[in-house]
Amino acid sequence: MRHHRLLVPGAAAACLLLAIPASAADATPGAPGIGDSYYPSYGNGGYDVSHYDLRLKYQPKTDRLEGTATIVADARQDLSRFNLDFALDVNEVLVGGKKAAFTKTGDHELEITPAAPLTADRPFTVVVRYSGTPSKVVASGFTSWLRTPDGGIAANEPESAWWWFPSNDHPLDKATYDVSVAVPDGTQAISNGTLQSTSSQLGWTRYNWRSSKPQATYLTTLAVGKFDITTDTTANGLPVINAYSKDLGDNAGAARASVERSAEIVDWESTVFGPYPFDALGGYVPNVPTGYALETQTRPFYSPKGFAKGANTSLVVHELAHQWFGDSVSLKDWRDIWVNEGFASYAQWLWSEKEGEGTAQELADYTYASYPADDPFWKVEPGNPGPENQFHDAVYDRGALALQALRNHIGDKDFFAILKGWTTENRYANASVEDFVTYAEKVSGKPLAALFDTWLFTPSKPAAAQARAAELSPAKAPVRPKSWQRIQDTHRTHGR
């Protein structure tokens, strides 16, 4: 027996509304950008990722990548649809186990509409099946995927994930990772964290890597090729894994002489910055034509050119200092790049001091004296350099100069307490330049806004009186510290 009910239009509408969960009725699309001041389209709004599980297969001969990404996230609003940042071809998307509609917008936005709206403050899972040839995919006018004679590399800043996995691509949304990569036998796959296992079947070897601490998308790396791999453990038992392409040529020896000192350098940096924040360390040097290095979490990427003039421990010091400043404590907005680069550069000054190649004070004096007042160097504000100057020398040198000015102003006791306390209080979190100023004022008990305005936010050379107030020596032409040129060469490796 069937019953029919006659409803007037108003009553029908009311019943329909009652049938829809309130969250669905109120659901709206997540923003296509996370709100970054330099890169408005990077990242996405409406959700927060907690974990990425990437299961990949890569053929070096053809640069063909196939993948299934499982993304575990929490909705931050009632979501009718949401975006992921991605540039490869997508075959299928499921949300909560159900097929979802999807479309590509722009050059790196994957717009997903789930079968039913997602409810705020509840977890959900997204599965994306995809494939493509990363080196042939151009987004924003370039590709971040680097081809090598025997494989491919994902390592770039501020973006590299688009070419190998879908993500919420901004440091504000850090997550843990499982990266599983199948490659032809005789080829290795290197990623972040610890190697959990390997297995071989039918001519393919699968490498399973795990990053158990929060990690930004641009710090997540993949390197496929034929490597010489060295392993060790630190005094505290942390696994050390370093990898070198077998065809580095004349740079091979210098690369090894530098990167193999990673454990020693981390042990020293731990005495300055506090306990090492991760459960693995190392580095890798693939045969790429690039010149830059990058602080990919637990396993920095180094271009062979970084060692063209011989061993370069200063470069390794810089990238490993980023494990605290940039990786563990990550920027909130890309304008906050100084909280990454200023501190990593100052670590090189401290290493120079330790090695007897010039004190931080001597490097500060020489930096101030080296650039005349009309040099464009002083036009860049390290505290907000603009996207076009994000990796300008001033962000590194003026950035370190600001820290020496702070050290002189508040004294060594408070200064080094700030370095350790900052990395402890903000471990695995995000912070801004303003957050650091506030923290330094709290620890030192001194007002510091004027000091930081002078050294980070003034588009001109601080006057001699301001230099003297920071205990610099503007009246004399200091002797160039022994470490100066090598540190400058290191900065050149950070141009993207």
TrEMBL record:
It catalyses: Release of an N-terminal amino acid, Xaa-|-Yaa- from a peptide, amide or arylamide. Xaa is preferably Ala, but may be most amino acids including Pro (slow action). When a terminal hydrophobic residue is followed by a prolyl residue, the two may be released as an intact Xaa-Pro dipeptide. Its EC number is 3.4.11.2. Residues 311-455 form the Peptidase M1 membrane alanine aminopeptidase domain. Its cofactor is Zn(2+). It comes from Streptomyces melanosporofaciens. SUPFAM superfamilies: Leukotriene A4 hydrolase N-terminal domain, Metalloproteases ('zincins'), catalytic domain. This is Aminopeptidase N. GO terms for molecular function: alanyl aminopeptidase activity; metallopeptidase activity; zinc ion binding. PANTHER family: AMINOPEPTIDASE N (PTHR11533:SF297), PROTEASE M1 ZINC METALLOPROTEASE (PTHR11533). Coiled coil: none annotated. Gene3D superfamilies: Neutral Protease Domain 2, tricorn interacting facor f3 domain. The keyword Metal-binding applies. It is an enzyme of class 3 (hydrolase). Pfam families: Peptidase_M1, Peptidase_M1_N. InterPro entries: Aminopeptidase_N-like_N, Aminopeptidase_N-like_N_sf, Peptidase_M1, Peptidase_M1_aminopeptidases, Peptidase_M1_dom, Peptidase_M4/M1_CTD_sf. Belongs to the peptidase M1 family. It comes from the Bacteria. GO terms for biological process: proteolysis. Residues 468-496 are annotated as: Disordered. Keywords: Hydrolase, Metal-binding, Metalloprotease, Protease, Signal, Zinc. CDD domains: M1_APN_like (cd09603). Residues 50-219 form the Aminopeptidase N-like N-terminal domain. The lineage of its organism: Bacteria, Bacillati, Actinomycetota, Actinomycetes, Kitasatosporales. Residues 1-24 form the signal peptide.
